[in-house]
Amino acid sequence: MNQAVNMTRLGETSKFFDAFVQIGPRRLKHPAHSWRLEDVLAEMEYCSISGALVASTMSVEYDLMHANRELSESLQGHRNLFAIWNVMPHHTRECLEPESLLRMLREAQVPAVTIHPRSNGWDALGHHAEELFEALGKAGVPVMVPATEFSSWQECATFLERYPALQVILLGVRWGEQRYLLPLLEQHRNLHFTLESYQANYGIEELVEEGLEERLIFASHAPMMAIGAARAYVDYAEVPMSVRRKIAGGNLFRLLQGLGPSGEVDNGDEDELMAAARRGLPLPLPVVDMHMHILEEGMNGGGGISRMFRGGPRDTFHLLKRLGCEAGGFMSWNGTVGADSAGGNPCVARALDVSTGAFWGLATVDPVHYSQEELAVMIPEIYADRRFIGMKPYVTYGVEYDDPAYDIWWRYGNERSFYAGIHRVRDDFREVENLARKYPNVRWVIYHCGSNFQVADGAIACMKEFSNVYAELTLTSVTSGVVEYLVEHAGADRILYGSDLPMRDPRPQLGWVVFSRLPVSVKRQILSSNARRVIAPCLQYLPAEVRSRFSRWEEQ
Q: What is each CA distance from 11 to 77, 241, 279, in whole angstroms?
């Protein structure tokens, strides 16, 4: 790994060409969520993105050729933006027949198209679609397809087999789909995919090792998702700089046959955190990650849909060091998602055994497999290991957290001023409200509050009522603007950074905060000082060597 770091020539930056942003009205949009072209342009400049392919929501939700033309007209005068048109077979007289369509694409300088067979109600494998796809493949026009537009991964595989000359870019592939995606990449050289939702732990490094670097495409899906989150995944990739430049924009430039932005955008007014992240350097502050899982050493998977490449302690601590993360709370995966608390807590302890930073553990207690009498014995035994200062229940046990079955644990934590990490069982915040009221000495950290604006609204209301409730951000959605929204309405001192590693790679989650439109002082609070305040009441229980590291930070 050290060799890989050297190969990146830390301190350099890459020219970014965004493969997919989408403007226009959206169904069920929250009033605070951006949607206009000017929103995207401002964010591109802020995050130093040099160009983008732009799609329109209305080309899917309305007459596609009308919306396609409107999109191209709206982009006139923006030499770094290129329209993506939505297309379909011509038989229903909604889209042009292939020859006329290709001519219009050339005239309008549209370098790529999208298809939405499920959303627009047609069959991508139907014989009526062959003429369209064969023409696009012969002309070298890439076809971008949201992964959700295939009814199954087998349909996707059949599509790739049927049209080997067609350059296909899959959009929105998620980390939980690795076991479908990776074999297809090996089997079909015409398959490429964008990284905005992939966020797999060490995902870029693994695919580059497998010789698939030319299939990886940078995209943000702004303004739905945060551009800074997408670029940090690439900026911090431990690959040669030449490879990083391919992923950032070179691969897309090649697929578009040389069409792309001629200039490079560089935000000359970025703060020190943004500057460090863009260069793949550790952030110049002690980052505290409030949401981390861990696997046993050498493991690459956590069961279910969760493949976590290099998810053990050695590679986890290596990656944290690269980012400047020096502290945080670990919880198990098998003890939470796997509902095996007796196996999960020792897994966390073994990870802490090899830690050299200021890390601690969150234990999981199980009121389902064990009786209250057994828990009365088990809970003190777990926390006899002074490195555990957190409480982490989970939804897989099937018991709401304010159920009396958990009271024995909450009382123990309340007496010692522990904190709890809460992945809500219910859609509302009632559990947290009941617990915050009943156990005031516990800091209740609600996980995933940045998932969308609607969840953020619920968390804000809860935090306004209870001073011992905090909002942690992490989720794959990396919703654009929601970090700023939470700060505005709940206060800068109540928001916490977390990554959910190694289920997700921490780099996009970090970039989400680093490239937010917040003063650098507030970013520092979210990334570090707020977390230290959450654990301060129970800091006394940690071993002396861990406490000493926090003391040194306070003196800086």
A: 33, 10, 5
Amino acid symbol at 203: G
* Long-range contact pairs involving 89-93 (C-beta distance under 8 Å, separation at least 24): 89/122, 89/126, 89/128, 89/129, 89/131, 89/132, 90/132, 91/128
Max distance between CA atoms of the chain, in angstroms, equals: 76
Sequence-distant (6+) residues with CB within 8 A of 31 are none
The domains of the chain, with CATH numbers, are: 2-272 (3.20.20.140), 287-555 (3.20.20.140)
Q: What is the mean pLDDT of each run of 10 residues along the chain (556 residues)?
A: 40 86 97 98 98 98 98 97 98 97 97 98 98 98 98 98 98 97 97 98 98 98 98 98 97 96 93 98 97 97 95 98 97 97 97 94 98 98 98 97 98 98 96 98 98 98 98 98 98 98 98 98 98 95 88 65
Tokens, residue 413: 């934590």
Angstrom CA distances, 42 to 71, 157, 217, 226, stand at 18, 38, 22, 12
Burial-class residue 408 by CB neighbours within 10 Å (0-12, 13-18, 19+): middle
Best CA proximity match to 481, nearest among 458, 508, 515, 505 = 515
At residue 556, the pLDDT reads 55
Which tokens in the block code for residue 73? 């007209």
Q: What is the per-residue burial (b if ≥16 Cβ within 10 Å, else e) of 267-291?
A: beebbebbebbbbbbbbebbbbbbb
Q: Identify the DSSP state of 48.
A: T
pTM: 0.96
pLDDT at 554: 67
Residue 531 host element (H or E): helix 530-535
**For residue 502, cis peptide bond before it (omega within 30 degrees of 0):** yes
**Beta carbons within 8 Å of 258's beta carbon, 6+ residues apart:** none
* CA dist., res. 181 & res. 167, Å (int): 16
CB 370 within 8 A of CB 378: yes
Residue whose C-alpha is closest to residue 161's, from 136, 182, 188, 179: 188
Q: How far is Cα 532 from Cα 527, in angstroms, rounded to an integer?
A: 10
On the CB side of 286, CA atoms within 13 Å amount to 18
The per-residue pLDDT for 68 is: 98
Q: ω into residue 223 within 30 of 0, thus cis? A: yes
Instruction: Check residue 10 and give its pLDDT.
Output: 53
